[in-house]
Amino acid sequence: QAQLVESGGGLVQAGGSLRLSCADSGRTFSGYNMGWFRQAPGKEREFVAAISWSGGTTDYTDSVKGRFTISRDGATNTVYLQMNSLKPEDTAVYYCSAGVRPRPMSYWGKGTLVTVSS
How many other CB atoms are found less than 10 A from the CB of residue 54? Predict the structure, then answer.
């Protein structure tokens, strides 16, 4: 069964770092663009970052440029989100996604919670 499984969330102080991982358990999505979205309490889900199926193209929302880096391991089709210089406003549930659009939204994981304390 096709499944995206996120891990790596947790509690971190402002200025700290976390690395999120998204495992494609069945290597179902190796030919898809993949991305990260987040949803803060009381807010709509928003785009964070995306990477093309080849890994050659990346895209970021303005608020994380220079702080977050998305990457993917072609051998395992695991997607990572390295988050540095974290801010309290980065607190959210982070969701992995896959699809054919540049900012893919067809398939979703269940999410992992990131909490940044001030």
Answer: 10
User: Taking the CB of residue 27, how many other CB atoms lie within 10 A of it?
Assistant: 13
CB-based contact 93:38 (threshold 8 Å): yes
Give the per-residue SS3 of 20-87.
EEEEECCCCCCCCEEEEEEECCCCCCEEEEEECCCCCCEEECHHHCCCEEEEEECCCCEEEEEECCCC
Q: Do 71 and 59 touch, CB atoms closer than 8 A?
A: no
CA distances to 73, 92, 98 from 108, rounded to whole Å, are 18, 16, 7
The pLDDT confidence band at residue 14, using thresholds 50, 70 and 90, is: very high
Say if CB 4 and CB 107 are below 8 A apart.
yes
Token pair, residue 68, equals: 């977050």
- Fill in the DSSP letter of residue 15: T
- pLDDT tens column, 43-54: 999 999 999 999
